[in-house]
What we know:
By secondary structure, the chain is an alpha/beta fold. The chain is built from nine helices and 13 strands. The relative contact order is 0.16.
Amino acid sequence: MSAIMELSGLRVRRGGREVLAIAGPLSFMPGEVVALLGPNGAGKSTLLLALAGLLPYRGSLRLAGRELLRWRGRERARRLGFLPQRVPEAAAFQVEELVGLGRYPHRSSRAVDARIIAQALAAVGLEESRDRLYTRLSGGQQQKVQLARVLAQVGLSPEDWPAGPPVLLLDEPTASLDLGARIEVLTLLRRLTGQGALCIVSLHDLNLALRAADRVLLLADGRLLADLRPDAVRDGACFEQAFRTSLMLSVGPDGRPRIEERWQARAQPMAD
């Protein structure tokens, strides 16, 4: 199986300084959920923006074997969907209209577009909200609508991937969601990758990432500290280095690690 994305010697400068430098080489395979972890300012969003072709970079970054900057806009958008951490206000769009914007790169029929939009809404549990105004939704519902827009852009099944499996680049897609909704989103991503898609997602919830991801890239100060398989993590040292705090690591019955801050793990009830 060939890698769907590859990078080597990736460097990004913003505001006159280098904010990301990943020597690599790194390869991302179809069927993977790759979680980006690290403290605020680690470079997670910058890496996703570069992978999406939205930042100038130096080095090599390839999508399906071709340098990313050689892809034409519409062609690239049919294979690669990006959900930013912050989305501009969407004026007075209805939910279905906003999700339908994801179909812009395609030249498919109205029937195909309608089917995929309906599938995307169903995937995030918003079928009954299709006619509501986006601005009247809660923050968590708005986040689901934006995820549905990206899903409509790339399609939800191999029948909609004639050029090959898509890449989803998601920056904090669960930030405004409650725990149940977070699990639903990550379960959805696992379903898509089970069909061959690649998902690279930045998360702040370490334990959710370690449970849901096939692979974890740990970033700090714009550098890659570790490229890990969660079930192979037996030492929290790299996480302590990244987050600059003392952590306690345990391993569950499923072989997946769990990380807690030591002050939380050792907290004592306050005296009366």
